[in-house]
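Hello again, I could really use a second opinion on something today. I've been puzzling over a protein and I'd love to understand its fold better. I'm sending you its amino acid sequence along with the backbone structure tokens. It would help a lot if you went through both lines with me. I've dropped the whole record in just underneath, so have a look.
***
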Amino acid sequence: MNCMPSVAFLRGIYKYYPKTHYFSSWVLDKAYINGEWVKSKNGKTFNVTNPANGTLLGNVPDLEPSDAEYAIQCAHQAFYQWKKFTAKERSKILRKWADLIFKNSQALSQLLTAEMGKPLKDALGEVNYAAEFVDWFSGEARRVYGDVIQSADPKKRILTIKQPAGVAATITPWNFPFAMVTRKVAPALAAGCTVVLKPAEDTPLCALALCKLAEEAGIPPGVLNCVTTSHENVSSVGKVLCKSHLVRVLSFTGSSHTGKILLNQCSNSVKKVSMELGGNAPFIVFNSANLELAVNAAVACKFRSSGQTCVCANRFLVQDGIYDKFMDGFSSQVNQLKMGDGTEDDVKMGPLINARALKKISNMVEDAKGKGGHAITGGEKGQPEGWFYKPTIIGDATTEMICMNEESFGPVAPVIRFQTEEEALDISNNTNYGLAGYIFTENIQQAWRVSEQLEVGMVGINEGLITYQVSEAPLGGIKESGLGREGSKYGMDEYLEVKYMCMGNMS
């Protein structure tokens, strides 16, 4: 079945995006199951819009639980053939997929900016990052090793092998709609698993574009399936993926609240679960810090992608001796950030993803103001059209404010003053979250000491972009920020099972 939209619709794309009509051929209007481009069984669709201006980009099938069950069945049947492919064969296919993503990066980045809103430069960086995950795991496919273990019994020989777990369900977020797909799908395919992908309802077009390239790369029918669904059906479709006994792995990136629901739903089938959940990252600036470095990193870490990244700094803790100078430099740079449609020149901040996100940020800022904080920059909606909120620094922040205790996922930077290292650690660790943390100090002993004591899965030491272009690093959190690791050599483990084999009567 043809997955391309109508000619009339493409003309509409050209009208609204004269500079970026380049991406229009990637606006696909069908889901991808068992190697076919399909509509939903009920024929329903839902709209995908540009968050910068509300323009309609396209519509995709609104699949229901029965469609998801069919996708699972197809993936289950395909698994028994895919796992027989040699590691070298899977590696070659994945490497071709990576090459195709790199080759089409310009058009894909334009699609990403239109669908999610981030500036074109950031979008291009993400597309290349997505390709790097596929490239990395194409190599890891050939590095799945077992062990020979010395036995205490002279008549026995002990060895282990690693085998693909089975069908993997991957539920991906909207904030990195290319990179989060490949970060999950590539290791699953490399391990020999098949995949049912459910992309975020705000950004399904990016996921479908990746499926189109995967098909071109030679990934067999049923090995990769993409189930698109609206906000109204997302819970029921997610429940099918969690409860199915044919699905042996669930990988999810999203909020801790949703992650807990999915964990509970997975319990009945006792499947492997990998999750990267919400964070409340502290960004600690000590008196010994390089001020210019800390300020530059703070801007990049907080306001990249309009604050809509899982590892964004959520709370800024600045030591008393450097506080005033830091605030002067921080506010000066933030005031210079250009906000607007990501296709415009020199834009550094795009819109928030939707109206719900805008309302959440507005409420957080009003709560902070009501509790004694004041907006040094921003503090209000950005412009009449689209879901924009001005980059905001909250001075005189306190630990009672919502923005200090909950993940903002937006352009709000509360800054609190501290006196001692112990105080900074107490504030930083007083949370149920533990995804990322940041330290700025020129004291190497302090850097090592504080890194060990921060209760997080990832630490940036004099660095604000710890996940950017690093497919080789293990990414993940502790406490209520997740389970397992993605990327790196450890990313394969989520999709593999260790089998112990005992050979007896060997002497």
User: Anything to note?
Assistant: The longest helix spans residues 120-140. DSSP finds 15 helices and 22 strands in the chain.
